[in-house]
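task queued by scheduler; priority normal; single chain, no ligands, no partner chains; default sampling; output format set to structure tokens
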Amino acid sequence: MSDMHSINEAINKRAGRKLLPSIAVSLSLVALIWTALAYRREVFVLVVAAAVLFGIREIVRAFNLRGTYISLNGLMIASLALAYATWNGGIAGLAVATAVALPILLIQLLTRGPEGFVASATATTFSLLYLPFLGGFLILLGRTDMGLERVMTLVVLVGCNDTFGYLVGVLIGKHPLVPKISPKKSWEGLIGSLIFTVTGGILAFIHILNVQWWIGALVGLMIVFSATCGDLIESAMKRDLALKDMGSMLPGHGGMLDRLDSVLISAPALWLALELVKAWL
């Protein structure tokens, strides 16, 4: 037990995260997503909407700490409207709801006068697109009859990328990938992500989606790119805002945004890939 404790502590120190709580939280989230989709897809929409709302709260707090005003209530109402429109109207509903919500949020900012308007408008636009808009693609993945299979494929792919990139990087990582943005990410970790995510993509597309293995391999490569970029985008945002984590609600991860970063960029990538597969095969 002492040896295992020493190993765990060494991993925690090098990774900057507590490994066991992180694993427990990840498995709990996977179980919640699977249960929601298996029970009723509408419940999954509520889960996504709740995650986005928690993320909105974190990002508004982060910008407010730097003196940039964003309307918390306005963004939360817009997020719920986008989730509802996406569930009922698909990609067209998401697009129209976003196009309607953005000018309303900007008009709301006019009531505060011109001081700081550009900064607030830019932060509001970024927050709307980054969270409820990109999060809407999770709902698009889950709203079809194959929703469970599509979303669990996303979970497998992003999970392989994050987990094995993390483990390989912690164990043998020596060459920083982008030290100015995320010092703990390494080229070795990226290679680990590539190997295991491509393998996970092949297995997921064969056994979950019943699609040819080579498509799974290509999509796995795409998800490594999207998930890694999603992680780096959030890391850059935290560094610019001088934050270690966006929150503290998820032990071993930080805030909700620290868990959603890879997913938010990967969900539209997988949705597009599956739409192309459906159209061409």
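post-processing summary
- The chain has a mean pLDDT of 89.
- The longest helix spans residues 72-110.
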